[in-house]
Amino acid sequence: MSKIDYRKVAIVGCGFVGSASAFAIMQSGLFSEMVLIDADFNKAQGEALDISHGLPFAKPMQIYAGNYDDISDASIIIVTAGAGQKPGETRLDLVKKNVGIFKSIIPEISSRNKDAILLIVANPVDILTYAAAKLSGYPENRVFGSGTVLDSARLKYLLGEHLDVDSRSVHAFIIGEHGDSEIAAWSSANVSGIPINSFCEMRGHFHHEKAMQEIAEGVKNSAYEIIEKKRATYYGIAMSVKRICEAIVRDEKSILPVSSIQHDNHGINDVALSMPAIVGKSGIETTVPIELNQSEEAALRKSADTLKSVLADLF
User: Fold this and answer.
1) Is 53 one of the catalytic residues?
2) Which of 53, 162, 178, 263 is an active site residue?
3) pTM, whole model, 2 decimals?
4) Which single residue of 36, 103, 144, 185 could bond 260 by disulfide (Cβ 3.0 to 4.6 Å)?
């Protein structure tokens, strides 16, 4: 088996999300080699060529279409392959189609590379992260999903807009399912260390319950709104994928709400969902405890039960 090349990344699936992620990664300068794999080889080749033509304005990099044999030395394998979410369809509606696709993809990956980090981006990401962990035989710390990294970014963006403050100074997480049962963890949200409600009042906002509800709904419905308007979401998730790769490649030990299999975290076991975790070169180092109030705790358990009921039909 080939030695792992820490400057090489592979993307499996060259639809909107895969190709947008490839474009974001090319601009990041994190890798010197990227292989694109798709059931339609011509599609992968077209994307590789199109993205490569921007290299004179970026950092030197080899970008090409390949097959599963080309991933044997990749350090990160990003899986975006799967059927897309259609208007009116929930992420969980996609489940049977995409678990079927994973049953053919994941064994192809694990038979060629046992040492990479497997980053799952296809939806429903929590179910597919669980499926990938079981099908690959990889250690659990090296199989995780993009989870609620994008949802948390949407929350920060909307809070930044609401408070007229740089969204990078907002610290807030969406946890649980990447989907309809997700939870905005308001009780731990803050702006530069100032509790969210205190900061809101400082900026002249006093109707906390109403604003919190509207913003949480805005985050939850973002994808549906974008899909309705332009049929797919891909730029936000591409930036999230780039951010996760950054944390891994630079061994940043950044705290990101990625999706991973939980073990007695807030009483939740044997289901993949998003909780803040320290992410570095070996994948997930550990999940990070997060303070939740009673209603958030109850909502998190309910989210876990929603996902478990779907898993029960599949595994």
Assistant:
1) no
2) 178
3) 0.96
4) 144
